[in-house]
Amino acid sequence: MTIDKSWTQIRKRSNSAVFWQGLQSFLQMAKPHVNGRGFIRCPCNRCINNVQHQLEVLETHIHRFGFMSDYNEWIYHGENVNAASSSNVPQPNSGVHNRDEMFEVLEDIISNDAEVDQLGSQSSNVQYDDLFTALNSELYPGVSSFSSLNFLVKLMHLKVMNKWTNKSFDELLKLLKLAFPKMDLVKSHYEAKKLMTKMGLGYQSIHVCKNDCALFWNENSTSETCPVCSESRWKMQAGRRTGKNVLHKVLRYFLLAPRLKRLFATSKTAKLMRWHRAGKSTDDNVMRHLVDGRAWKDFDRKHPVFADDVRNVRLGLAADSFNPFNNMSILYSMWPVVLTTYNLPPWLCMKPEYLMLSLLIPGPQSPGKDMDVFLQPLIEELKELWENGIDTRDAGNDRKVFKMRAALLWTVNDFPTRSSLSRWSGQGYKACPTCNEDTPSMRVIGKTAYFGHRHFLPSTHRWRSNLDFDGRTERKRPPRRFSSVDIMDQLRRVKTTIPGKHPNYGGVKRKRGDDELNWRKKSIFYELPYWAEIELKHNLDVMHIEKNICDSLLGTLMGDPHKSKDTNNARHDLQNLGIRSELHLYEDGNRLMKPAAEYTFS
Asked: What is the DSSP pairing of strand 538-540 with strand 406-413?
């Protein structure tokens, strides 16, 4: 029986009954040949049999974009099915339509969209039109192995890896266009960035007050002045705006949800996102992944509904400063805030390709006590991901849609950054965030010293009765553990502070009351519904601690005058405490002598 295919050539499709009847017959013929997920190749002029969709999407695509003119034998949709399994069957399209590696990327982006079932609508498809146009375009006449989109992605990757400036990138594009006039390529870095944004590689630019008081975001997005200090949003000259509106600061925020959804877009990464359940240790005394730790298990016990779905995402947050100009003579620092996914196995979760930049906090100074101001967009999205979740397609489970939720388990930072995030000051007599108000400390020459390390020893340990440490025997027990209820009681006593660095508002220094302990304010992390109950909220970066301790230890052992902690002030402190008399300084005529210690190599 001959199949009528004349309807595929009709150009005025909107009001054609012949086209509509032919399309319905085609869909009925293709229906028995969908795969187990209900998907089949789409023969529209945009997808050209390289992208699979559901039948409802095929119907709209063919109606909107037209039917492929060179697809004469419908071997993928029911015609001559037996021949489709033979080695003589041609692959989807040739020439410019050879399978480009970017097809798989775009297919993942589109098919993982929670609204993929309604991809027939114009509003949900129009954002991908430019991408498919670049994908279906030859980079140069006669070059079918490289699409325009593929070349642009690789060129942008080279720009990032080799730190090209935007200006140098524009100059390169001009040179390529001059040398190869027929090359199908964007004209500027601005156009390239707009195209990359449609692939989910963009960010939101959020304006910031010059004094870090507030973000021009949400209810303040249209304000011209800061709601706290009333400073202008724009740089001013002689009380007036400059010729062009120039912002003081811009916070760059990279949305989290689309990138988490991307982890489930391919079967490989979707399977890896389940590793933490199958790969955890069966021995309670062995810890090979964070899932084996007490903090993870405690979180699962307190939130069983969240823990029940292995696909729900566990996140960790890290932040630190860096000099973007690679020039330490320039006093400018930016603060990236990075998230990592702990669902992945330990050999992947810290790999660069799985680290997600969330915020890029502008300089030139550290945000310090105003870190919470910049974290607002991330915290709002984390709250949404915890409370409502987001529809996500799971490529590891027949691409079925599930409600993905996410939780931030802890932060990992050096000690100064920990103070900025937790809002517990790392200075003063109560600097230890674990010992809290029970921190053992004393004032020595030029600084505060922290002792009491013998608290953790067994009560019968011989070092507890040794007088060489601080001239006293140690009878105190290990410091008490403060529960979440204790911490929340302390935070209720902390006064509300004004953010920012304006000298008349947030920049005014205030003295903390005794009942506030070392709390500067209540951290924004406590807006997360589960944060108060997390057992381990902040982790210290071992790398920094190891380096600092190693430098100090080796410097002291080697007698390095620049790095040794065995200073004259330290010897005076021993004398004031009345311990280790053999190390006390003494005078020899007009000279102050420093006895050599047994632990030095010099």
From this structure: parallel
Q: What is the pLDDT of residue 89?
A: 39
Cα angle: 147, vertex 153, 157; to 5 degrees = 145
Q: 240-241 and 236-237 as β-strands: parallel, antiparallel, unpaired? A: antiparallel
What is the residue-wise DSSP string for 483-525? PHHHHHHHHHTSPP---S--TTTTTS--PPPGGGTTB-S--GG
Pairwise CA distance, residues 390 & 248, whole Å: 34
Rounded average pLDDT per 10-residue block, the chain, 602 residues: 81 81 89 81 82 83 83 82 41 45 67 46 55 78 80 90 91 92 90 84 89 92 90 75 77 92 86 88 82 92 94 94 76 90 91 92 88 95 95 82 94 91 90 90 91 89 89 88 91 90 85 87 94 92 86 91 90 90 89 89 76
What distance in Å separates the CA atoms of residue 497 and residue 522, rounded to the nearest whole number?
A: 9
| Alpha carbons 474 and 468: distance in angstroms, whole number | 11
Neighbours of 174 (CB within 10 A): 12
375/525 Cα distance (integer angstroms): 9
CA dist., res. 324 & res. 163, Å (int): 11
Angle (CA) 355 356 362, round 5°: 120
């095929």: which residue's tokens? 58
**299-412-511 Cα angle (round to 5):** 100
Whether this prediction's pTM lies above 0.85 is answered by no
**Residue burial 108-135, b: 16+ Cβ < 10 Å; e: rest:** bbbbbbeebeebbeeebbeebeebbebb
